Automatic annotation (TrEMBL):
UniProt-recorded Gene Ontology molecular function terms: helicase activity
Keywords of the record: ATP-binding, Helicase, Hydrolase, Nucleotide-binding
Ranges for domain PLD phosphodiesterase: 43-65
Protein name per its UniProtKB record: Superfamily II DNA/RNA helicase, SNF2 family
Matches recorded under InterPro entries: PLD-like_dom (IPR025202), PLipase_D/transphosphatidylase (IPR001736)
Length: 95
């Protein structure tokens, strides 16, 4: 995922994660400059969203979820054509 982010230098990227998880510092320390991380209480969603698509699946944003485990994920068209609106409407999270 970090490789993909590095290929998008002019794109706003925000990681939204569950608040208070032990691995949040692990993730935060590895984020490139300009990438923000927002912690939300009781979040369990696993999605990567851009204006065109949403990548939805079982992968947690953890070391195991991103590098070790077999996960099931799907890429769908973002019917809102806007990443922020998708997050607001589908996850009830306001950036």
């Amino acid at each position: 995922m970090l490789d993909a982010i590095s290929e998008l230098p002019d794109t706003d990227v925000t990681f939204i994660v569950r608040e208070g998880e032990d691995h949040n510092d692990f993730v935060r320390e590895r984020l490139p400059d300009g990438v923000t991380m927002l912690e939300i209480e009781d979040l369990h969603a696993k999605v990567v969203v851009c204006d065109e698509y949403a990548y939805i699946g079982s992968a947690n944003i953890t070391r195991g979820g991103l590098t070790l485990n077999r996960e099931v994920c799907e890429v769908i068209e973002n019917e809102y054509d806007n990443a922020v609106i998708y997050v607001e409407e589908e996850l009830d999270v306001y950036l």
